[in-house]
Amino acid sequence: MRRAYSVETVRAAEAALMKRVPEGALMQRAAAGLAAACGDLLRRTGRVYGSRVLLLVGSGDNGGDALYAGARLARRGAGVRALLLSPGRAHAGGVAALLAAGGQVADGPDDIGGALDLVVDGITGIGGRGGLRDDAVALLRAVLRDRDRTPVVAVDLPSGVEADSGEVHGEAVRADATVTFGTYKPGLLIDPAAEHAGALRLVDIGLGPELPEPPDLEALQYADVAALLPVPGAGSDKYSRGVVGVVAGSERYPGAAVLAVAGALRGGAGAVRYVGPGADAVIARFPETLVHAGPPSKAGRVQAWVLGPGLGDGRWAEEAAADVLAADVPVLVDADGLRLLEPDTVRTRTAATVLTPHAGEAAALLGVAREEVEAGRLAAVRELAARYRATVLLKGSTTLVAEARDTPVRVNPTGTGWLATAGSGDVLSGLTGSLLAAGLAPRDAASVGAYLHGLAARHGSDGGPLSAQDVADALPAAWRDVRAG
């Protein structure tokens, strides 16, 4: 599992560790890991010896890390130059080490020369706020002009992004890879900042024992998801596997009902009960579905409900939503169902509620502009979870899962842009509902659902366009992948 901590927590952990190790040891550990990562990247396109490396060096510790790493590369035969943004404030020991190893300090962008094999971004550190300053932007543009294919490695995190929130205010470095130290930072895992980070590499500098529990963010990996998957045993029946009820679809949007049911069935539900106007379309596609004319409370035993995809907003939809929300089982609310919610109704439910909005729906629930949600996804998902006292799965370029109580926000690592297709969210709703019905805790059901959903999209697309039904059909392959490790 990838775990991420706030800047405040990281700095406290570093301070505690520095009391137990020799002075400068942490910077040397970071520099060693950074130099190794840069060396690996250089070897992919050529070799370290004879390569041309440029260090962009700010006044903080990230600049020192870059300088010491540059010294190590210079000793291996690379031609290393450092461009100091604030020459009088650059890390003196790092500058001396670079010069002693045969590196050079450039007088300015015009002193760089021709082609470069690597640029190392050590401009700002984890404390940077508000994007890059104008002088840094001008320098970066001058360096990368006519060198747009030169790979960029960021030190700890790309300069200009917000480490704690994943927000990007103004211009920021777009790295091909980021080498981070001690632990992941939230901004490396959350868009829009995560889009600037490229491939991530974590360097162990001994910080682990100093980091508290729980982390601020976590991202599940294969083994974590495999441990949570509800796998039937020899004595399982449809009720022990989970029966999920689906209230979705309308005369206008019968396909939403079909896709939500598909997600539930492909997600491992023992049975699916469907209530709504799309019964004929559902039965035509999935004859094993148990259909009922309604109300939902009369449909039969279920262990969780999925409410909302394609439901519309008419009288029947309002009555069905009220009926479902009165049930004493977990309820997942998506799409049109979100517009029918009253915060007090959700807050007073005795069973769990999972909300699955995209950015536009989240903005409507919060009463803010969509752009505000997209720019501050972490703040938005936390605010929604607290306001509704629910588990919230915020869909988007990085899907986030938050609870009202003090648990780490989860970040899904399997998303793909191909999921931005009509009906994909309906499949996710049915899938997550099936996991709720199987007994997974709300945060686990939402996290595993998002993980499998993204993995299925990768299977279904094969690198190209896909439909929502393709995603549903690829869910069994995603299950097999996770179980196989």
UniProtKB/TrEMBL annotation:
Gene3D superfamilies registered for this protein in UniProt: 3.40.1190.20, YjeF N-terminal domain
Its biological purpose: Catalyzes the epimerization of the S- and R-forms of NAD(P)HX, a damaged form of NAD(P)H that is a result of enzymatic or heat-dependent hydration. This is a prerequisite for the S-specific NAD(P)H-hydrate dehydratase to allow the repair of both epimers of NAD(P)HX.
NCBIfam families noted in UniProt: yjeF_cterm
Binding site for AMP: 395-399, 425
Reactions listed under catalytic activity: (6S)-NADHX + ADP = AMP + phosphate + NADH + H(+); (6R)-NADHX = (6S)-NADHX; (6S)-NADPHX + ADP = AMP + phosphate + NADPH + H(+); (6R)-NADPHX = (6S)-NADPHX
EC nos: 4.2.1.136, 5.1.99.6
Coiled coil: none
Cofactor needs: K(+); Mg(2+)
Gene name linked to the record: nnrE
Cofactor note: Binds 1 potassium ion per subunit.
Swiss-Prot/TrEMBL keywords: ATP-binding, Isomerase, Lyase, Metal-binding, Multifunctional enzyme, NAD, NADP, Nucleotide-binding, Potassium
YjeF C-terminal domain boundaries: 221-482
All residue ranges annotated as the YjeF N-terminal domain in the record: 10-213
Any one Pfam family match given in the protein's UniProt record, by short name: Carb_kinase
Annotated K(+) binding sites: 62, 121, 159
Subunit structure comment from the entry: Homotetramer.
Binding site residues for (6S)-NADPHX: 61-65, 125-131, 156, 256, 310, 358, 426
Protein name: Bifunctional NAD(P)H-hydrate repair enzyme
Family: In the N-terminal section; belongs to the NnrE/AIBP family. Belongs to the NnrE/AIBP family.
